[in-house]
Design goal:
It catalyses: Transfers a segment of a (1->4)-alpha-D-glucan to a new position in an acceptor, which may be glucose or a (1->4)-alpha-D-glucan. The chain has about 500 residues and is an alpha/beta fold. It is about 40% helix and about 10% strand. It has an 8-stranded parallel sheet with strand order 9-6-3-2-1-12-11-10. The longest helix has 28 residues, at about 175-200.
């Protein structure tokens, strides 16, 4: 028997709070309490790694670290690491949108004060020891960034090429700064751990996200340049992107580093095993972004336009066989959107990983796989995701003919398009249904989180204070119970696949 479940997509950066960005503190726990009261069993979020330019969580300089932006100031105060004077010295930042530079500046000052007030204890020393495999290089990378800027290829040659003597001198001369970066990761681990423990107590599981590629200027490319498509000086000959299609006529140049899959395979994919293992420490389910890239990915030459790129082969099933062998029955989800490909779907099925279906994509033809009556059980159904417009914004852009098709399929929209689409998603046979929080609140395009290919204005939307009303909780709970997705029915893993 397959258990039906449901949840809401909300990135922690979007939570309300006074320090410019959402945090892993009281607002996160209040959000979990809302989910539990509304009979939701899943909270889905985006990557929690340190963000890249303009706050993008998919352009991270460190794939195993957590973003210090999400460390909770309230928890630091409660632990005695900050006092009222520390907090009063900081401005209250606007709550409507995330201002990443301002939020990061405030958080850096507060974390520096917290570090000065912290006395290392056995728990901290155990964390540093247990996580040293990635934590030490992360701290070095961040200290060197502070000292020399970026990219790392422009650092003094002994540091760029990781000369052991140069690193030893750094460890000695920068001991305090290195410890501060380890301390920030310790705080992230504690605060996220508290949120995860509260989620488990409430019966809510967490879905996290793994970006397909790291940033070119990242601790990953610096510490293991041999595993990436880089020249002898650490510079990329090609970067990740996507070819021109109906959604982007010029294609997209993401700019991320590309893998040397042959070298990863020669090491039994140990780098990827370590990465997924790390994410299972954070999440109950792990979504693999850009799943088609594991079969074939688009490489854009540097310099060059997206249309100048070419397809290259990914690792295919061998990677997932290794992950299963080393990690066991870890729960993976595949972002398998984009142009339909029988090969991509076959890889997903062979790997035993559920895919995704988006009802916003469903009305381009009668046999469209995104129509709810075509959904398989082993998939996650959404109206749209963080890369789509909100359903209300999407609806505003539909032609009269498409609106007619949508209304005919949905049997009318007496409650408005957002809740009518939500009924279609929850009524699907998909074992998991997820709504973006913006659709729950019936918000328009002004609340969209990301427009792919846009260089600014993304990742900044925040949940308005007091938006989670008792009436909204009741309405979501009734919808969930109507379609048998309430948490009382969510006690077993789905069967029929190994994801």
């Amino acid at each position: 028997m397959v258990t039906r479940r449901s949840g809401i997509l909300l990135h922690p950066s979007s939570l309300p709070g006074r320090y410019g960005v959402g945090e892993l503190g009281p607002a996160a726990e209040e959000w979990l309490e809302f989910l539990a009261a509304a009979e939701q069993s899943v909270w889905q979020m985006l990557p929690l790694n340190p963000v890249g330019a303009e706050g993008c969580p998919y352009q991270s300089p460190a794939t195993l670290a957590g973003s210090p932006l999400y460390v909770s100031v309230d928890r630091l105060r409660d632990d005695g690491l900050l006092d009222a004077a520390d907090l009063a010295a900081e401005p209250e930042l606007p709550g409507e949108r995330v201002d990443y530079p301002a939020a990061l500046a405030v958080k850096r000052r507060l974390l520096a004060r917290a570090h000065a007030a912290f006395t290392p204890d056995a728990d901290y020393r155990a964390f540093c020891r247990d996580q040293a495999g990635w934590l030490d290089d992360y701290a070095r990378f961040m200290v060197l960034r502070d000292r020399h800027g970026g990219p790392w290829t422009e650092w003094p040659a002994p540091l760029a090429r990781r000369d052991p003597a140069a690193l030893a001198r750094l460890d000695e001369s920068a001991a305090g700064d290195l410890d501060r970066y380890r301390f920030e990761q310790y705080l992230f681990a504690r605060h996220f751990g508290a949120v995860r423990a509260r989620a488990a107590a409430l019966g809510v599981e967490l879905i996290g996200d793994i970006a397909m590629f790291p940033g070119v200027d990242s601790v990953e490319t610096w510490s293991r340049p041999d595993l990436f498509d880089l020249d002898a000086d650490g510079r990329p000959a090609a970067v990740a992107g996507f070819p021109p299609d109906e959604f982007s006529h010029e294609g997209q140049v993401w700019g991320n580093a590309l893998y040397r899959w042959d070298r990863m395979a020669a090491e039994d994919f140990a780098w990827w095993v370590a990465r997924v293992r790390r994410m299972t420490e954070w999440y109950d389910m792990v979504r693999l972004d850009h799943f088609r890239g594991f079969l074939r990915y688009w490489a854009v030459p540097v310099p060059g336009r997206a249309g100048d790129g070419s397809w290259r082969d990914g690792p295919g099933l061998a990677l997932f066989q290794r992950l299963r062998k080393d990690l066991g029955d870890v729960t993976l989800l595949a972002e398998d959107l984009g142009p339909a490909s029988a090969e991509v779907q076959q890889l997903r099925v062979d790997a035993g990983i559920p895919g995704m279906r988006l009802v916003q994509f469903a009305f381009g033809g009668d046999e469209n796989q995104h129509l709810p009556h075509h959904h398989p059980v082993d998939c996650v159904a959404y109206p749209g995701t963080h890369d789509n417009d909100t359903t209300l914004g999407w609806w505003a852009e539909r032609s009269a003919d498409e609106r007619s098709r949508v209304e005919r399929y949905l049997g009318g929209i007496p409650d408005g398009i957002c809740w009518s689409m939500a009924r279609a998603v929850f009524g699907s046979v998909a074992y998991l249904a997820v709504l973006p929080v913006q659709d729950l609140l019936e918000l328009g395009s002004e609340a969209r989180l990301n427009v792919p290919g846009r260089s600014d204005g993304n990742w900044t939307w925040r949940l308005p204070p007091r938006a989670l009303s008792p009436g909204l909780e009741f309405r979501l709970r009734r919808l969930t119970e109507t379609y048998g997705r309430d948490r009382r029915a969510a006690g077993r893993r789905p069967s029929g696949f190994t994801g």
